[in-house]
Amino acid sequence: PKLVREAAIAAVRAGSQWTAAVLYLEVAICYRRARSFREADEWRALALKLFPRYVAALFEQGLALVDENRCDDAIRAFEAVLHADRDWPSIDLWLVRAHAD
Question: Quick one: angle between helices 17-33 and 55-67, nearest 10?
């Protein structure tokens, strides 16, 4: 993560906030898969701070919340994805899953 953070800082300095947001999200995904939810949330928040409507980050937030069994929060995250992009792949299935849990 340290190297990615340095790369993200360099991207921001170079004027590429989008690259930084993508890097932050990739680290968040790695932390979620390792079940380090606090760290995943911190990195995902960095991506969403740069782009609050970053749909992939909103979707990843929903996935993390499902993994944490915070289904009510996951539903809200998935609804934000649905609001931003009605064609997001499998969003309907994830909403059903969150409602079922």
Answer: 10
